[in-house]
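Convert to structure. Protein one:
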Amino acid sequence: MKRVSAGGRIVRLHVSNISKWLLVVCGVALIAAGYILFAQLKIDILGILLDLFTGYGYWVVFFGVMLENAGLPVPGETILLAAGFASALNMFRLPLVMVVAATGAVIGDNIGYWIGRYYGRAFFERFGRFLFLTPARLERIDTFFAKHGSKTIFVARFITGLRVFAALFAGTSRMAWPTFFLYNVAGAILWAVVIATLGHLFGDSWPLLERWVGRSGAAMLIGVVIVAAVAWRISVHRRSREPETED
């Protein structure tokens, strides 16, 4: 039996983890840069959406929210904010906006869930190494969803970026569908009510409202990334202090 010293293992872990820390830092920087760039584009998004509402009505809300939650790069939350404002202009009925948005969110999330359930495991086992998702990390994701899946599905609804991937990983981890569906519906209803109401009440201050909601979601996402990175680093440090035996 050959015993590897804890010090030697720490050195190897330190070297191998530099790229992972750089990835985390770059990811957070890209999120912040993407938001800042989008904020500087000066596009009349509200005007565009109001024109779409005039031509296509509630379908814009339904498909916008559904496609975002299914994983496509569609600004579903911005569309819902604008729909709430449109209800203040008597273009829409606010309760119906909430129902349509919640329905679209639930359907989109369930698409993501079943894609993950049927295809996610095979995909990540084959290509996960290119995404830094090793089999061990997939197992940790499974364990996380087994313990905290219901809370994650509910809370992720309000976090920019996470709401797109939470359902996919819930399916990949084989989270029980009835539990997923229950918390998904609860989160979707609350999210639709809150965002549509904000648009209805504060739509006259659209630029400020859009920035505030967008920054809140981005800040929550960055916070989640930082907390996850710190927790991961603590876990690595603890494992590095344990002696390892090799044949």
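Protein two, convert as well:
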Amino acid sequence: MVAQYKCIRTYVRVCLAGLRGGRRRGQACPPGVKLGYGEASRRTRRPVGNAAMAYWLFKSEPATWSWDQQVAAGAAGTFWNGVRNHLAKKQLMAMQVGEQGFFYHSNEGKAVVGLVEVIRPYYPDHTDETGRFGMVDVRAVKALPRPVTLDAIKADPVLAEMVLVNNSRLSVQPVTEAEWARVCALGGLG
């Protein structure tokens, strides 16, 4: 069904608009269709004890907030603010304490450079004058021994459906368990 569309983004727009027999509000997408986002919080979760675990990717421009600054924040971590995209907001709202994410340098470097952990769930963003957006707190867990570049991610067939590859503008993204394992392996955490 997706093949008749130019790209997955076109199909998603059609699905979400409810056109051509696609998805309508409250309905699931057709079988075999992975949106890569939207339903991500349910799609990426895996059981951990009695809870569920999801993986994420946090993008930051090194000139604004770098991995070194995140590490310097220590165990207390820092807030992840400034997100002004509604889809990214939904991802932040889905995050739970203890879930992990990749720290990705965008614009300069374009690479996954470390792992972070969510240490405080979604709460209002003090920098948002409209009061519509929020943030989570994260702390640095560890640096990747080898940064995983965007080019390496795009070249890897296991990561072909990763949101970073297909919707690179989204500042906070879900990561599947398979994608998490593959990027960790490429980064030397094997």
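Confidence is low (pLDDT under 50) at residues 1-5, 7-30, 33-50. The two ends are 36 Å apart (CA to CA).
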